[in-house]
Amino acid sequence: MTAVQTNREQPATQPRLPGQSFASNQPAGHPVPSSFAGPTSNEALLVWVAEVVALTTPNAVVWINGSDEEWAAMAARLVDAGTMIKLDAYPDSYYAASDPDDVARVEGRTFICSVDEKDAGPTNNWMEPAQMKEIMSDLYQGCMAGRTMYVVPFCMGPLDAADPKLGVEITDSEYVVGSMRIMTRVGDEALRLIESVDTFVKCLHSVGAPLAPGAADVTWPCSDTKYITQFPEERTIWSFGSGYGGNALLGKKCYSLRIASAMARDEGWLAEHMLILKLISPEGDVSYIAAAFPSACGKTNLAMLEPTVPGWKVEMLGDDISWMRFGGDGRLYATNPEFGLFGVAPGTGWHTNPNAMRTIEKGNTIFTNVARTDDGGVWWEGMTKQAPDHLIDWKGRDWTPSGVDAQGNTLESAGEPAAHPNSRFCTPITQCPMIAPEYNSPVGVPISAIVFGGRRKTTIPLVSQARDWQHGVFLGSTMGSETTAAATGQVGIVRRDPMAMLPFIGYDAGDYLNHWLEIGKHADQAKLPKIFYVNWFRRDAEGGFLWPGFGENSRVMKWIAERLSGKAAAVHTPIGLVPAVGALDIDGLEVDGRPMSTEQVKQALAVNVDEWKKEIPLIEEWFAFLGETLPSGMSDELAGLKTRLGLL
Ligand SMILES: Nc1nc2c(ncn2[C@@H]2O[C@H](COP(=O)(O)OP(=O)(O)OP(=O)(O)O)[C@@H](O)[C@H]2O)c(=O)[nH]1
Ligand SMILES: O=C([O-])CC(=O)C(=O)O
Ligand SMILES: [Mn+2]
Q1: Region Disordered: which residues (predicted)?
Q2: Which residue's CA is the nearest one to ligand 2's atom 9?
Q3: What separation in Å is there between the alpha carbon of 295 and the centre of ligand 1?
Q4: Is the shortest distance between the CB of 295 and ligand 2 below 6 Å?
Q5: Which of 105, 273, 301, 426 best tests ligand 1's pocket when mutated (most atoms within 8 Å of CB)?
Q6: Substitution candidate for ligand 1 out of 344, 381, 545 with most atoms within 8 A of CB
Q7: Is 495 annotated as a binding residue?
């Protein structure tokens, strides 16, 4: 390894100079190479960085300060290397194409390495921590050769929080640095906080593609061998082999959900896969709502909702992750640990999510695996109803809507989507024009309703309300959803996804459900959020969506707000409370230019006992799989449901 680099300028007046502070503070006999230095005096951090340097043997080490100049220089290098292409259509925006085999989270390669296997539970892959560390240390050995190692200090959530959740990601991917810079609060300010604390999450990431001297690089280095590993007791993350999204931006799923859920269990709070929105009624009444839908099932879209119901307004606080803690007043307060949006591109357009379009139009966005237009813009399926006449697809090939070129030759890309179904935009949250002014509040916002929702063609009605907290936890625990392209594997298979957290619970799933019940038991019942269950994706006999979704979901949000204020009527059904006839505002609701029929609304809201009878064995199978840690409250709820359905 050559001399350490730091890209920060140290003014002469600053008392702490890189290297010097470390050298003078270094205890005798410390196992740190003497060549190492860094712009912090946090011993634990310096020792860890030195250990990773010794293990991974990078060419150079750069500490990220988070400045615009730093990113400008790095982006220029990424463009030179061909990893990113600068887009003409938006300011400071870039396109990146991943390796075709590195396009989504790899759940099969994701491990919870708790000390005791039982603590990982039946829903997680597990390996003994020491064994995993041995395997991964072998992989990490020399894995950054020929590359620069970046040290990225970051903070999840507002920097002025009472208990800021800090981390440092070490990575050999500049694409990851650029994305982390958008998604989290990175650089000097986070490092200043880390300087004074002992607890920060160590996040080690490598694309796993060492470069031999003089060897040419590829535009998206990665490895066929991938591991995404959490060590919950040590609050440590090791990731190897992938450069993509939740596999590589370790502040996101790995820290803010898997590690944070274990922290939350220990400390009495909730770390959830939820958007946070602020719903404002025409009278100015505000309700803050958190909603959990599985990956690629509508969180970003609901968070940015543009209501079609006159007078109603939505503002966004977060689109993917919510941390919820009790405030001094006994209410549950939510903060969004992230600082950016890593949104699904396909389906995002002016007609579905205009606020996302306005956000990315402002620039400063990294697009991954989308298609490119001839005028330096981007396109994906669903951005506009009609595709442009010519595109470069996400694999870099010519693409036309018909699959043939101007000469009539069939293109290699014929029949394939132009953008990958899990293509993404990564953009600063502050650019969203409807962001709530309180999005950066260190205490968060008091949540009045929690909404669960899956992607289900059948069975699950458009909206229902839980009778109480335990029933709501039951609804969340039994949630099923069709798999999507956000994770590798077959798409469209219904799987149970408790609270949309199946791939993200950092410990035993039964213990997790019990933690939810405990949260409810220790709260003032009157101040607990009310729990709802929605499904935007129910289909009719012809396979069409029964509900138009998107902006029209404001009608459902209105019913929820009016349930909270006691204004809207509901009727009891075996599965919970559903809108009474006329309680759901469908005034002016049109589908394909025709008023939506009351019959169709009825179908969307229907509780079909025959469908539920088919659902019960699936829930039973799921609960049996969860095993002995399943709380008895959940079995009680299942028995109650069966009784109400006439099955007991
Ligand atoms: N039919 C229908 N599709 C929707 C609706 N809301 C979102 N979608 C589509 O579902 C897909 C995923 O939506 P997102 O809002 O990005 O999902 P997400 O939950 O934020 O996804 P992650 O970022 O993976 O966690 C997109 O293609 C959307 O267009 C809806 O109300 N109805
Ligand atoms: O983590 C990712 O890659 C993207 C995401 O938000 C999800 O899958 O829920
Ligand atoms: Mn997500």
Answers
A1: 1-36
A2: 295
A3: 8
A4: yes
A5: 301
A6: 344
A7: no
Which of 560, 336, 315 has the alpha carbon at shortest distance from 451? 560
Sequence ranges of the chain with CATH classification 3.90.228.20: 270-339+437-644
Burial of 441 (0-12, 13-18, 19+ CB in 10 A): middle
Question: Which residue's alpha carbon is at the smallest distance from atom 6 of ligand 1?
Answer: 298
Is 552 part of any known ligand binding site?
Answer: yes
Query: What is the residue-wise DSSP string for 449-474?
Result: EEEEE---SSSS-SEEE-SSHHHHHH
ipTM greater than cut 0.95: yes
Chunk the chain into consecutive blocks of 10 residues (it has 648) and report each block's average pLDDT, rounded to whole numbers. Answer: 34 30 33 62 94 97 97 98 98 98 98 98 98 98 98 97 96 98 98 91 98 96 98 98 98 98 98 99 98 98 98 98 97 98 98 98 98 98 98 98 97 98 98 98 98 97 98 98 96 96 98 98 96 98 95 98 98 97 94 89 96 97 98 98 95
Q: Is the CB of 246 under 6 A from ligand 2?
A: yes
| 297 has catalytic annotation | yes
Q: Can you state the angle between helices 469-477 and 509-521, rounded to 10 degrees?
A: 160
Q: How many CA atoms lie within 13 A of 172 on its CB side?
A: 31
Determine the Cα angle at 333 with ends 232 and 317, to 5°.
90
Q: CB of 249 closer than 6 A to ligand 2?
A: no
Catalytic residue among 143, 297, 426, 432: 297
Residue range 270-339+437-644, CATH number: 3.90.228.20
Secondary structure E strands in 78-216: 84-86, 94-96, 110-112, 148-156, 165-171, 185-186, 201-206
Which CATH number does the domain 45-267 belong to among 3.40.50.300, 3.40.449.10, 3.30.565.10, 3.40.50.1820? 3.40.449.10
DSSP β-bridge partners for residue 494: 482
SS3 of residue 389 by DSSP: coil
The segment(s) of the chain belonging to CATH 3.40.449.10 are: 45-267
Q: How far is the CA of 233 from the centre of ligand 1 (A)?
A: 34
